[in-house]
Specification:
255 residues, alpha/beta, Rossmann fold, seven-stranded mixed β-sheet, two-stranded antiparallel sheet, 8 helices, 31% helix, binds S-adenosylmethionine
Amino acid sequence: MRLMSKCERFIYGPRKIKVISPEMVRDEKITRLSKLIRREELKQLPILKRMDAMIRSKEIGFMVEGVPRHAAYQSTKPDIMVKALSDTVNLRRVVILPDKINFCDWGAGMGSSGLAAHEYLKYLVKIGIISDFHVTGFELNDKFNAITEKIAGKMEMKQVSIINRDFTTLTRDELKPFNLIYIWRPFLEDFGPVMNKVLPRIRSGSYIMARDCWEANVLEDTSLFTKIFHPVYYIYGTKISLYRRTEKEAPQEGK
Ligand SMILES: C[S@@+](CC[C@H](N)C(=O)[O-])C[C@H]1O[C@@H](n2cnc3c(N)ncnc32)[C@H](O)[C@@H]1O
């Protein structure tokens, strides 16, 4: 067994809490998932072969209320999602994980982050950390949704729903069921102002894993969110930060 580093001892405490290793990263299902998604991504967006960076492409753009938006495509590699989730779970001193995790991905792409979360959450049920889970991906690109469904079917992932819907239109009531939300800068135009309106609709007590969402200053500069840990995982020069929606009532929109 690997010994904890000084930093890990500080975060997790002296062996009181069992650290759940991200052994899922080496799980053959995660490796298979990575391969299946990568194959589909290269088919859909061959440019990814040359640059593994964020793509801003008209082909994956869409209109919202008559405003063209450029979707920013890049996927969270399944092993990174597993690592980020396991880091979150290992923070059980400060993160009170819900017993039933209702995970939601805002801009699910071809399912990389959501399907990886499915596998990790299933593993948490198996080892008794949580009792149940569900994964929902909101994605506006129908081609991507078909791919996610195909891969989920191939891999027999059953607790997953893929919904073609602009997540920025989700109301407070529609957002109520979700207690763990993942966001990775899904579009480029007006990202900050749009997110500043959408994020406060999240119900209090929910967790948000936000990757590269620095323009959404509502996360850092208001009392609506508490930053719990940062970075959850640091790679490729980007970080995934964990926030919790506080009890504070958000101002009513339109006022
Ligand atoms: C950066 S990719 C992230 C994919 C996935 N979450 C991941 O991390 O692997 C962003 C995706 O969000 C989708 N998207 C952008 N704006 C959206 C919106 N308002 N509602 C639903 N999907 C959106 C895009 O089509 C794109 O596939």
